[in-house]
Amino acid sequence: MAGTHPIVDVHTHMYPPSYISLLSSRKEVPYIHTPSSGDPRLIILPSDDDASKPPEQRGRPVDTSYSSFSEKLKFMSTHGITCSVISLANPWLDFLDPSTAAKTAHQINSDLDAACQQQNATSSALKLYAFASLPLSAPVPEIVSSIHSLATLSHTKGVIIGTSGLGLGLDDPALEPIYAALASTRTMVFLHPHYGLPASSFGPTAANYGHVLPLALGFPLETTIAITRVYLSGVFDRHPDLSFLLAHSGGTLPFLAGRIESCVAHEREFTVNGGDKPGPRRSIWDVLKTNVYLDAVNYGEPGMKAALAAAGGEDGQGWDRLMFGTDHPFFPPLAGEEKWLSVESNLRAIEGVCAGDEARKAKILGGNAIRVLGLDA
Ligand code: URA
Ligand code: ZN
């Protein structure tokens, strides 16, 4: 698959050393617990903190693939990836004490930026950039300041956020100054799931299927609901310069956009239909072509086709709005293979939709990320 064009991974995570120390210092979710034998264990969801299991079986092991830059570079070499835009993995900094959140975020973002800078100063073959994390538990003026201060981080190309916002979701009116700051600084917002759906959605036998239901369905539906709430609350009407990059190709948004458009058109609560609620003014299709980019992390050709079609059409600018990603270090090979199935299936699906068109493939694999994020890759 590797060719002469750059391959840029826009969806690749780390828990860098400063974040690991932060989690290791905590006793409440999220935290890292180091048992007397084996890898440290990461407990990131209340459901991981299962007191019926011994501590050494709670959560998931965090080996060095989560925290080591050399492991990231090794993974990139294995798959011919020439540039990675690294983001903290969930749950980012959503849980920080409000009084120290902005300072901690600045420290962690600066450390990640410095590591990318150091790598790029020593290698032109494997480049690193970062998406910063916002101190969303801090007072709003401090969050706004931290957005403006990202301009001082030369290798930071946007921010990653989850779906909770300030605690009430991404259609919370209290987020207005934050959206205004993100739009005026032209900061890309990488929206990523973490909280999933309520366990009750999956029924009493869900545990028989391990993590399949929450990961395969809970994650993408969480993203779909979050971005739809952003759209419905008119955020894109008020902030036309805002840009979102949606994880996992927007969850199910590409498939459901037509249904969302239809339900909006029929909604009597909205002023256009005689109601007294504002409702969104722009078409979801317009927002998808103007404010939204999709990563190409959906593991199959039908999903990739839907993403392309929703992003601007298979005959139009859809090719300019999809960006390759891997979700490394999640979904590692279980049987010790060198190549990661999770990566190979995304690459195959991209190959499939490009059907031999090298220029289109080059855009999805790296050209779009380089252009949109302003990478020197
Ligand atoms: N599981 C997670 O917790 N995060 C990811 O990004 C992917 C899988
Ligand atoms: Zn991810």
From TrEMBL:
<feature type="region of interest" description="Disordered">
    <location>
        <begin position="40"/>
        <end position="64"/>
    </location>
</feature>
<feature type="domain" description="Amidohydrolase-related">
    <location>
        <begin position="130"/>
        <end position="375"/>
    </location>
</feature>
<dbReference type="InterPro" id="IPR032465">
    <property type="entry name" value="ACMSD"/>
</dbReference>
<dbReference type="GO" id="GO:0005829">
    <property type="term" value="C:cytosol"/>
</dbReference>
<feature type="compositionally biased region" description="Basic and acidic residues">
    <location>
        <begin position="50"/>
        <end position="61"/>
    </location>
</feature>
<dbReference type="InterPro" id="IPR006680">
    <property type="entry name" value="Amidohydro-rel"/>
</dbReference>
<dbReference type="GO" id="GO:0016831">
    <property type="term" value="F:carboxy-lyase activity"/>
</dbReference>
<keyword id="KW-0456">Lyase</keyword>
<protein>
    <recommendedName>
        <fullName>Amidohydrolase-related domain-containing protein</fullName>
    </recommendedName>
</protein>
<dbReference type="GO" id="GO:0019748">
    <property type="term" value="P:secondary metabolic process"/>
</dbReference>
<dbReference type="GO" id="GO:0016787">
    <property type="term" value="F:hydrolase activity"/>
</dbReference>
<keyword id="KW-0210">Decarboxylase</keyword>
<dbReference type="Pfam" id="PF04909">
    <property type="entry name" value="Amidohydro_2"/>
</dbReference>
<dbReference type="InterPro" id="IPR032466">
    <property type="entry name" value="Metal_Hydrolase"/>
</dbReference>
<comment type="similarity">
    <text>Belongs to the metallo-dependent hydrolases superfamily.</text>
</comment>
